[in-house]
């Protein structure tokens, strides 16, 4: 379970980075547009396509990251499920032992 905890912490850090990117990216697109148009005297279609390529690149990176996170989450859930199954088995064994103890105690009191 320690590996699962480490993976969850890693995912939380990555999510915080993506959230920062969500707030920073529109500003970066605006700065790149203004820089390309005003300083380099490019055309509006060029600025559009340049930012479109940046957007597609970010979307592609996000998609790959999302698939990786989903895969990690499935592995974590499977590990948790295995631990829950072990606990369920242990609880069942304890119930059986307790019922055997209760039966023995009851039998001692009934049979002289």
Pick out its properties.
112 residues, 0% strand, mainly alpha
Mean pLDDT: 87
Form type: rod-shaped
Parts with pLDDT < 50 across at least 5 consecutive residues: none
The largest pleated sheet is described as: none
Secondary structure class reads mainly alpha
Order of helices and strands: HH
Report Rg: 29 Å
Q: Portion of residues in helices?
A: over 70%
Number of strands: 0
Strand content: under 5%
Oligomer: single chain
Number of domains: 1
DSSP helical segment count: 2
User: Between the first and last Cα atoms, what is the distance in angstroms?
Assistant: 51 Å
Question: What is the gist of this entry?
Answer:
By secondary structure, this protein is mainly α. It has helices spanning 2-39, 44-110.
Walk me through what this model shows.
With about 110 residues, this protein is mainly α. The chain has one domain (about 1-110). It contains 2 helices and no strands. Helix 1 (about 1-40) runs antiparallel to helix 2 (about 45-110). It is rod-shaped. The mean pLDDT is about 85.
């Amino acid at each position: 379970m320690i590996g699962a905890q480490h993976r969850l912490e890693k995912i939380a850090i990555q999510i915080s980075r993506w959230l920062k990117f969500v707030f920073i990216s529109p500003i970066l697109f605006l700065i790149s547009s203004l820089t390309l148009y005003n300083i380099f005297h490019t055309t509006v279609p060029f600025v559009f396509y340049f930012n479109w390529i940046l957007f597609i690149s970010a979307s592609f990176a996000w998609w790959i990251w999302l698939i990786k996170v989903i895969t990690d989450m499935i592995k974590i859930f499977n590990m948790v499920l295995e631990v829950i199954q072990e606990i369920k088995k242990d609880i069942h064994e304890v119930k059986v032992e307790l019922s055997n103890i209760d039966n023995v105690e009851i039998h001692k009191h009934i049979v002289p």
